[in-house]
Structures are given as C-alpha cells and as structure tokens.
User: What shape does this take?
Amino acid sequence: MYLKRLFLLFLSGFLFFSCEEYEDAIDPYSLGEWKTFTTRDGIGGNEIWTMLADSKGNIWIATLDNGVTRYDGNSWKTWNTSNGLIDNTVTAIEEDINGDMWFGTSSGFSILNASGFNNYTGIGGNIWQVRSLKQADNGSMWIGTWGNGFFEVKSSGIISYYNDTWEETNYVNCIDQDMQGNIWVGTNVGVYRVRPSNVDFFTVSDGLTTSTVKSLMADSWGHVWFGPDDQENITRYDGQKFSPISLYNGMPQNYVTSFLEDTQGNIWIGMISNGVIKYDGTIMRSYFNNDGLASNTITAIVQDTNGNIWFASYEDGITRYKPGFDD
Assistant: This one.
C-alpha cells in the first residue's frame, strides 16, 4: 500500500478484556430524567446525523436534509442553504480553537464565525463529501471525506493531503486524536494512525475485530475504542495491542455508530437498532426506547457542560438524559 502526502497552500485562507458483569433490567426513573426533543420543539429535522456540545454549552444538531440546529438551553436556531450553509445534509460538526463552527456536508464544508459563513467545496474541482471533522491540539483541523481521503488543514493555510492508491481506504468514517497526539482515521477497510514520523495502517490481521471501522474514540486513559458494523465485539487499543470486548447484549451483529466518555469515566456506546450501552469498566447497562430513549437507533452521543447526556436518533429527534443518584 502506498500512501501519498501532498502539501498544498491555499493563498486566500483555508481551502479549506472482557466484562465481569452485565445488567439489563433498569428503572430509568430512579436513575435520572429523560426528555425527547423533535421538530415540534424547534429542531430543523428529526433525522439526525451527528451532534456536538460546544465550549459555550450549546448543542449543535446535524440533520440529514434540513441543515444544522443550535440549542442554547432556551431557544433553537437553524441554519440551512437559505441563510448561508453550503448544503442541507450536514454530516460532521466541529468547533475550532477560535470558537468558529465547522460543518461538513455532502457538498464540502462551511465555517461559521461572527461575520457569517465561509463555504468551501474541495480541491482541484473535487467536491468533498465530508464525513468527519476533528480539531487537533496543535490547531490543525482534520477533515475526512467519502472517497477523497483525509486532510490536515493547518492554521498557516498549508494542507496535508492523504490519499491512497488503494481506493477503498479513501472512504473515511471517523477521526479522533489520542493522548499522545496521534490521529486515528477509521475507514471501511481498516484504520490509520498518523504520527509526525510515519503513518501506520491496521486491519483484522493486527487485532481489530473487523476492518470496517464505523466509529472510534480516544479516551482519557490513553485507550482508543473502535466500533464495528456487524460484530458482537468492539475493539480497544491500549497503546500496545488491540483487544476485543464483548458487548454482552445478546446481539451477534452490532453496528456501533458512536462513543462517549463522560465526566465520570463511563463509556457510552451508541448502536443502530440496539440502543445504548453504558460501560463503567465492569458492568454494562443497556438503555432502549422503553427506558426513555427516543429510538433504539442512535447516531451520536455527547455530554454538555451541565453533565447531561444527549442521544441523537436517526428518525426521532434527540433525547436528553439528566443522570440521577445512581450515576
């Protein structure tokens, strides 16, 4: 496999382990409070692709075809193509070091600052379908695309372009940065680890439960978690090796869409059709729509500055969970 890196300058700014116990029967009302929000409350659309909790306490909600909505705790505001957004299908959200908001879409990406929107489609005539955005500690913004590889946009305006001759690796699902500053990029055929000195590529032969990495998250302990699309197990990397962790939910096929490490150190795992699992390192608890979720198909999980956990669903809006005394 040959990974090429091109350096471009954009002159007018940015171009841009196993578990010991499993617990399923829960009384959610003794644990906390659940509330669902939909278009009736003010969200632009009920089909949610992803979410972000920003540094100011806002919740940003990316919809499938109705733009992006911001909830500040009191009111809702939606941006779409009618008021500056480049495309109504929003697939990624990130806040940069300046507090500006980046929105990945099917037609490129938009940056929203105090002056309004700046919109960018891609490089060399290619329209980027942006699937993931990650602000790195050094100020760079990493952009993952569907079919055009991934990019590092530095604050200087220099862009590092990672595009593989093996076309399948150019379809990026997710990006995160670990405690050592490494960038992890999940694709449908494996995962990249980008370090200053080199780029590694890992597959099932290296210990992943599957080469299709639909979601990943680096936690505060130095681990990296990887979500599959059809496995009973997820994978955790401890800095030395990849290890499978069973979800113990009785489901042979789990499509893991999202991870969250909350402020208590719990790992939340969102799935298609199988609800949410909370893992405290020993016990796994399942949550479903009859516990308070809007849907059993979860597309994103975030925690706000007040400690609330938010769950995005594919067709039924979002759910806010206020943890109770047992949490």
In short: The chain has one helix and 30 strands.
